[in-house]
């Protein structure tokens, strides 16, 4: 099984650092980070990760706009996207579900559990 | 563990004290009954050893006096007269056990241990916390079978925490429990003992620190959920008496593969240096974020907040909500999540909301300070589930998508949830985890579907019902037939929700039920003529979920007391016009308030004042200036004790259902609740037919046995949200909300049938049987108060009796 590569797009440096640390340590995955929607779009296209973790609330280009661009670009549209959000209103959740994402993960996540959560929703072997 | 020994024979006293001290107990000795009783009233003991024949006040009187004051400390009588009378007198006076002199020391110590167990929450002679074990009978502490060497004080601390797993102990409470009154140490000393204990436990390889520091309050034992695997134990090292703990490899929804399971702790250790570095940087940025929120709050309170900073504060609060929990502070995340909407655009806050915001932001700052002072990254690198106060919901659903939607909805209402795909998996999960409620989806059973998960549902429901208190289950089902609903209810399903309901509708039912079954908030009334003290206490107590009613004018005392109906009263001793001690007497003379816990605040701790305070009927006192942690722990402990007493006072001793006074109150509440939520409500009466015949033929003991069994059946049949009370000799009254008349009749018929099938042992004769009659009335516009309902039900009951009994009549 090839090593999984995951792209994380989030404007919060702490989230990136912790997710990168634990996903590499627990899952042995390679983690690519991006701190904005635009940087994320570039890296998604060039790096072709196995999955993208995308924060919803970001300044400038938010997660939803980023997602729509990922889906309209043929180079990135087949990469599964997991939304990360601190908003857990049911209405939001329903709206996210209709956007065609693989899953939604609620923030704050537990550092050492993140890998398992992602593997589970994507049906990856653990 | 602190023990009071009241014994006038110095020889016995000193030899007993020595034996107890060798077992690491702290012993205070009183040589007459008067001093003994006063010590027991002034200090907190875990157990009292009481001689019967004593100067000044004999043991029986001491016992009666303490019990009359509501003191529930376990009492072991030492009696020389091996006559039944003195033992019976002692036990009737409220003693828990006795030994007769000359006693065997080993037996006495074993009885002491047994009584100390009774006070705790554990029923095993071995006290355990994950891979740590303490054996009180040998005073041995082991971790993974390896013995630890603790000082007597460290041992005492550990034992106290293990025996009182939910209690928070302030330094002064620890002093109360672990030092005799002749040698009180400083708080600093206590803290250094706790530190020493922590270090030894860590060095011995105890997983995680068992003690949790509650910021500004004291210490508490962490929940021992999520037990660890004991594969590192090799059988050779294990002593006899070491018990295997039940292990469930499915104790979490998120299961790691076996390899990972054993190595996550290793991984945590490996990445610790990196995590330390991340945390160091994160601290600074979190600090800046909180500072932005603080600045914005200050300006908002002065009505000078500009749009830029408002937006920034909203964003920072959102980021904090998303990241604090990742660093192990769920509470911080919750606070930030509550702050975020208060900074939303176009939102004008009124004065109350502004105060609330200030309160939240202050809490957030404190939370961050606490996180910064505790640089232990293993907190958030641990794989243990956090143990916090948000209710836990277990969702049992075969459809992962629907389960996820329900979980998301639950999260939006502040519930934490776990998901199990089938009832069988849910049962495995229950091995290591106690949810507050279970949401169970019951798919329609097909005739051929022999392996349908629905077949496992009854076993799960039965298990949920077997816990004390039972875990409520909400059943989602497409089976709308009355017989199915009755079947579910009989199995212990509390609420039935159609499978077609939206997640939001389902969770509405869940949260309603949780609110209904969770205890209401605690009300504390504080009476002090100093407004500053009042404000300080309000700030101190409210974060603990207490509603604080303050009053500075003693002349309005009685009317406020009536209106506030507090669960606990805090009184200042010195006030103008009328002093606190007089108020305390007024309260104690009113039978309605005789059981209200009362705490005094006083600057004077001279014996004279103390004596007046306790004579007036106070339960406890706290010295001024008030030290927050001490007051909070004393209040929490006092409330815990009064709840216990109340439950004793509210239960009918013979049948263990609510007594008449209590059930009347509960029925009224339930009826009002039904009115408010437009729910149907049924009142039923169940009455044993012809108790006189039973008493006459088989004796009164047999009659009592019958009533006890019927009480037990009713407790099992009806759930904690129904009300069951005993109103008269043979008469039980039952209130059910959200139940239609047909369902009520069905449930009662079930009970009547079961009573008919019970067999009771006759003294010398064949076993005998009894029958009972029941009536049920459904509330409507014409009969909507409790009295009218009862009258109607009583009329119907007479019809049932007239028709020969053993039947259910409705009207």
Oligomeric assembly: heterodimer
Task: Enumerate the spans of chain B where pLDDT stays under 50 for 5 or more consecutive residues.
Answer: 120-124, 226-262, 384-389, 447-451, 516-520
Q: What percent strand of chain A?
A: 15-25%
Please estimate the helix content of chain B.
40-55%
Number of helices of chain A: 5
Order of helices and strands of chain A: EHEHEHEHEH
Residue share in β-strands of chain B? 15-25%
Explain this structure:
The complex is a heterodimer of chains A (126) and B (811). Chain A is of the alpha/beta class and 126 residues long. Helices cover 43% and strands 19% of the residues of chain A. Chain A contains 5 helices and 5 strands. Chain A has a 5-stranded parallel beta sheet with strand order 2-1-3-4-5, sandwiched between helices. In chain A, strand 3 (51-55), helix 3 and strand 4 (81-85) form a beta-alpha-beta unit. Chain A is globular. The mean pLDDT of chain A is 87. In chain B, helix 2 (33-42) packs parallel to helix 3, helix 10 (272-301) packs antiparallel against helix 11 and helix 27 (700-717) packs antiparallel against helix 28. Chain B is globular, with a radius of gyration of 29 Å. Chain B starts with a strand and ends with a strand. Classes of the chains: A alpha/beta (126), B alpha/beta (811).
Topology:
The complex is a heterodimer of chains A (126) and B (811).
Chain A: E1 5-9, H1 13-27, E2 30-34, H2 37-47, E3 51-55, H3 63-72, E4 81-85, H4 90-98, E5 103-106, H5 114-122
Parallel strand pairs in A: 1-2, 1-3, 3-4, 4-5
Helix pairs in contact in A: 2-3
Chain B: E1 2-6, H1 10-22, E2 26-30, H2 33-42, E3 47-51, H3 59-68, E4 75-79, H4 84-92, E5 97-100, H5 105-119, E6 127-129, E7 132-135, E8 140-143, E9 146-148, H6 152-163, H7 171-178, H8 187-203, E10 211-214, E11 218-221, H9 258-270, H10 272-301, H11 307-323, H12 330-339, H13 351-373, H14 378-381, E12 392-396, H15 400-412, E13 416-420, H16 423-429, E14 437-442, H17 457-466, E15 473-477, H18 482-491, E16 493-498, H19 503-517, E17 522-527, H20 531-541, E18 546-551, H21 557-564, E19 568-572, H22 580-589, E20 598-602, H23 607-615, E21 620-623, H24 628-650, H25 660-676, E22 681-688, H26 691-698, H27 700-717, E23 723-726, E24 731-737, H28 741-757, E25 772-778, H29 786-802, E26 808-810
Parallel strand pairs in B: 1-2, 1-3, 3-4, 4-5, 12-13, 12-14, 14-15, 15-16, 17-18, 17-19, 19-20, 20-21, 25-26
Antiparallel strand pairs in B: 6-7, 7-8, 8-9, 10-11, 22-24, 22-25, 23-24
Helix pairs in contact in B: 2-3, 6-8, 10-11, 10-13, 11-12, 12-13, 15-19, 16-17, 18-28, 26-27, 27-28
């Amino acid at each position: 099984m090839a090593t999984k590569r995951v792209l994380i797009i989030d404007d919060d440096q702490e989230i990136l650092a912790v997710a990168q640390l634990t996903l590499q340590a627990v899952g042995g995955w390679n983690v690519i980070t991006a701190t904005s929607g635009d940087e994320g779009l570039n890296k998604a296209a060039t790096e072709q990760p196995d999955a993208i973790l995308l924060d919803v609330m970001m300044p400038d280009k938010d997660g939803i706009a980023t997602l729509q661009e990922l889906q309209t670009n043929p180079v990135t549209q087949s990469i599964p996207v997991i939304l990360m959000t601190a908003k857990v209103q049911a209405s939001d959740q329903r709206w996210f579900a209709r956007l065609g994402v693989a899953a939604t993960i609620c923030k704050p996540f537990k550092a050492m559990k993140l890998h398992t959560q992602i593997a589970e929703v994507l049906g990856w072997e653990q | 563990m602190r023990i009071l020994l009241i014994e006038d024979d110095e020889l016995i006293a000193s030899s007993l004290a020595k034996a107890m001290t060798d077992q690491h107990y702290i012993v205070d000795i009183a040589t007459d009954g008067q001093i003994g009783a006063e010590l027991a009233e002034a200090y907190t003991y875990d157990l009292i050893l009481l001689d019967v024949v004593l100067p000044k006040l004999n043991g029986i009187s001491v016992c009666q006096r303490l019990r009359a004051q509501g003191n529930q400390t376990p009492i072991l009588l030492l009696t020389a007269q091996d006559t039944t009378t003195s033992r019976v007198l002692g036990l009737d006076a409220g003693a828990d056990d006795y030994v007769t002199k000359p006693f065997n020391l080993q037996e006495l110590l074993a009885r002491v241990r047994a009584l100390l167990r009774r006070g705790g929450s554990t029923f095993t002679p071995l006290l355990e916390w994950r891979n740590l074990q303490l054996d009180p009978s040998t005073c041995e502490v082991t971790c993974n079978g390896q013995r630890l060497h603790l000082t007597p004080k460290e041992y005492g601390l550990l034992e106290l925490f293990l025996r009182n797993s939910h209690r928070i102990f302030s330094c002064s409470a620890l002093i109360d429990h672990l030092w005799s009154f002749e040698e009180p140490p400083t708080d600093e000393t206590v803290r250094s003992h706790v530190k020493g204990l922590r270090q030894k436990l860590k060095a011995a390889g105890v997983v995680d620190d068992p003690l949790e520091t509650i910021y500004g309050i004291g210490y508490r034992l962490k929940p021992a959920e999520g037990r660890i695997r004991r594969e590192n134990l090799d059988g050779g090292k294990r002593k006899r008496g070491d018990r295997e703990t039940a292990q469930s490899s499915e104790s979490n929804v998120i299961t790691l593969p076996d390899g990972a399971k054993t190595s996550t702790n290793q991984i945590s250790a490996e990445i610790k240096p990196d995590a330390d570095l991340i945390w160091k940087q994160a601290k600074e940025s979190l600090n800046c974020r909180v500072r932005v929120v603080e600045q914005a709050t200050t300006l908002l309170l002065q009505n000078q907040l500009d749009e830029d900073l408002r937006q920034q504060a909203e964003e920072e609060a959102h980021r904090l909500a998303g990241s604090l929990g990742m660093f192990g502070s769920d509470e911080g995340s919750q606070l930030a999540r509550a702050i975020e909407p208060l900074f939303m655009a176009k939102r004008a806050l009124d004065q109350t909301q502004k105060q609330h915001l200030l309160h939240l932001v202050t809490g957030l700052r404190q939370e961050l300070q606490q996180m910064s002072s505790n640089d232990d990254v293993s907190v958030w690198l641990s794989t243990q589930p956090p143990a916090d106060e948000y209710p836990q919901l277990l969702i049992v659903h075969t459809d992962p998508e629907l389960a996820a939607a329900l979980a998301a909805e639950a999260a939006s209402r502040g519930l934490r949830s776990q998901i199990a795909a089938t009832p069988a998996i849910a049962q495995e999960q229950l091995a290591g985890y106690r949810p507050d409620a279970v949401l169970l989806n019951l798919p329609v059973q097909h005739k051929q579907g022999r392996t349908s998960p629905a077949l496992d549902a009854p076993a799960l429901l039965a298990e949920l019902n077997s816990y004390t208190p039972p875990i409520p289950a909400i059943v989602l089902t497409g089976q709308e037939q009355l017989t199915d609903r009755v079947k579910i209810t009989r199995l212990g399903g509390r609420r039935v929700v159609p499978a077609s309901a939206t997640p939001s509708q389902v969770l509405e039912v869940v949260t309603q039920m949780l609110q209904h079954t969770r205890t209401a908030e605690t009300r504390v009334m504080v009476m002090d003529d100093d407004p500053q003290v009042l404000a300080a206490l309000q700030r101190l107590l409210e974060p603990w979920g207490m509603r604080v009613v303050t009053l500075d004018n003693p002349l309005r005392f009685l009317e406020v007391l009536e209106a506030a109906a507090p669960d606990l009263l805090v009184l200042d001793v010195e006030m103008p016009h009328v002093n606190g001690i007089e108020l305390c007497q007024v309260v104690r003379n009113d039978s309605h308030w005789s059981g209200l816990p009362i705490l005094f605040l006083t600057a004077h701790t001279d014996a004279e004042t103390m004596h007046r305070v306790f004579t007036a009927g106070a339960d406890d006192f706290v010295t001024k200036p008030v030290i927050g942690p001490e007051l909070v722990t004393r209040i929490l402990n006092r409330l815990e004790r009064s709840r216990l007493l109340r439950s004793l006072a509210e239960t009918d001793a013979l049948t263990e259902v609510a007594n008449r006074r209590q059930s009347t109150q509960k029925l009224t509440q339930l009826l009002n609740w039904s009115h408010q939520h437009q729910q149907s409500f049924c009142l039923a009466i169940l009455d044993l037919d012809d108790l006189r015949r039973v008493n006459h033929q088989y004796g009164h003991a047999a009659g009592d046995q019958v009533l006890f069994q019927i009480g037990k059946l009713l407790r099992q049949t009806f759930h904690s949200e129904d009300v069951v009370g005993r109103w008269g000799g043979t008469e039980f009254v039952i209130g059910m909300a959200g139940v239609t008349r047909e369902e009520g009749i069905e449930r009662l018929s079930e009970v009547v049938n079961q009573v008919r099938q019970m067999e009771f042992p006759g003294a010398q004769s064949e076993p005998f049987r009894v029958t009972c009659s029941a009536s049920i009335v459904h509330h409507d516009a014409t009969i909507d108060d409790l009295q009218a309902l009862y009258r109607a039900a009583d009329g119907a009951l007479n019809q049932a009796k007239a028709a020969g009994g053993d039947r259910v009549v409705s009207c």
